[in-house]
TrEMBL record:
The keyword Acyltransferase does not apply. Residues 188-282 form the Peptidase M20 dimerisation domain. This is Peptidase M20. It comes from Planococcus donghaensis. The lineage of its organism: Bacteria, Bacillati, Bacillota, Bacilli, Bacillales. Mn(2+) binds at residues 104, 106, 140, 164, 363. The Mn(2+) ion enhances activity. GO terms for molecular function: hydrolase activity; metal ion binding. Its cofactor is Mn(2+). The keyword Lyase does not apply.
Length: 391
């Protein structure tokens, strides 16, 4: 199953891979702004002799055609950075752009997949099928994967595989279990309208602050009292804006929050209940409510066969101790849009190492990765593709 030529090529190109990652880390680009990154990726793949084309407005798709007929497998890496100020001020490759950094490891994903592509070129004539490389923009705003799918990124693909570097687990550990991995991630916005007035005359008003506060306090019972306890779900209020002045009773209140779950029926149920709770809460106090529910990413559900293949590859390439079981996370990941189209799976590769100060949470200003994990991630990409096509 494991191709030793691929393993050797990954190791030989590990220093270059780290240089690429550090270049990308120092030049972060936000979602839908990955123009320089896309150009770099396009140029690198073209120099390898892999036919590539740019997507609109950013993103790159390329395909390596093997020397024999067979299926097509897609490998995906995301490229965008975050609006986060880097706190690792002593890094030689720290972000050069104020208020922007690769705080989630997408620079690592891109470098790993480019190195995997280079290794796969070395066995091109032996490959029975095709390998498609998908370099995706805008994962952080959960719109990039859908745009890539709409432009045909996985059209004609038989299987798709992705990786996320994971600072919450030990460097070198790999997780890919069948079933739920990441939750669906939705946004809801509620606008409450009352009747404003003087703070000294509440009897003449309908206080939107009271309506909104009551909703925030009671909406958690949507999960605790209307959702099956065996179906995990989270409703979080992250923002509330109410009123204009200390002595004026608020006429308007705006709330924003997120819903996370794994089950589509639970997702539908929570959406309906949020509207019911908002309308009834507003009515109790004499106000009105408008609810906007925005569906974001789907839940990432790993296919059983694909997840098993990842585990088999990991054991043969890195040993049985490389595997661990990661509980499903309520975090969102738009890789789900690829899985809506074709079978596949999404793996986590550990990069947490307190001795190198890389144990910080994703999206934190001190986030960084143990670069020793990159050889593992790059090889997992390449060996998965090889194993899928040759078995």
């Amino acid at each position: 199953m494991i191709n030793q030529t691929i393993k050797k090529a990954i190791k030989e190109n590990s220093d270059e891979m780290i240089r690429i990652r550090r270049k990308l880390h120092s030049e972060p680009e936000l979602s839908w702004e990955e123009f320089q990154t896309s150009q770099f990726v396009y140029d690198y793949l073209t120099e390898l002799g892999i036919k590539a084309h740019k997507m609109e407005p950013t993103g790159v798709v390329a395909e390596l055609q093997g020397g024999k007929d067979g299926k097509t497998v897609a490998l995906r890496a995301d490229m965008d950075a975050l609006s986060v100020e880097e706190l690792n001020t002593d890094l030689a490759y720290k972000s050069k752009k104020l208020g922007k950094m690769h705080a989630c490891g997408h620079d690592v994903h891109t470098a790993m997949l480019l190195t995997a592509a280079k290794a796969l070129v070395s066995v091109k004539e032996e490959i029975p099928g095709n390998i498609r490389f998908v370099f995706q923009p805008a994962e952080e705003v959960a719109t990039g994967a859908k745009a890539m799918v709409d432009q045909g990124a996985v059209k004609g693909v038989d299987n798709v595989f992705g990786i996320h570097i994971w600072s919450q687990s030990e460097t070198g550990k790999i997780a890919c279990s069948p079933g739920p991995a990441f939750a669906s991630a939705d946004i809801f916005k509620v606008h409450f309208k009352g009747q404003g007035g003087h703070g000294a005359m509440p009897q003449d008003c309908v206080d939107a602050a009271i309506i909104a506060s009551s909703f925030v306090m009671n909406v958690q019972s949507v999960v605790s009292r209307t959702v099956d306890p065996q179906q995990s779900a989270v409703v979080t209020i992250g923002k509330m804006v109410v009123g204009t002045r200390f002595n004026i009773i608020a006429e308007n209140a705006d709330i924003e929050g997120t819903v996370r779950c794994f089950d589509p029926a639970t997702r539908d149920h929570i959406e309906k209940q949020l509207k019911i709770y908002a309308d009834h809460t507003a009515a109790i106090y004499g106000g009105t409510a408008e609810v906007e529910y925005i569906r974001g990413t789907q839940a990432v559900i790993n296919g059983a066969e694909s997840a098993q293949l990842v585990q088999d590859v990991a054991i043969e390439a890195f040993g049985e101790n490389s595997l661990y079981v990661e509980k499903p996370t309520m975090g969102g990941e738009d890789f789900s849009f690829y899985l809506d189209e074709v079978p596949g799976s999404f793996a986590l590769v550990g990069s947490g190492n307190p001795q190198k100060d890389t144990q910080w949470a994703h999206h934190h200003g001190k986030f960084n990765v143990d670069e020793d994990s990159m050889v593992i991630g790059a090889e997992l990409y390449a060996q998965y593709a090889w194993s899928f096509l040759t078995n």
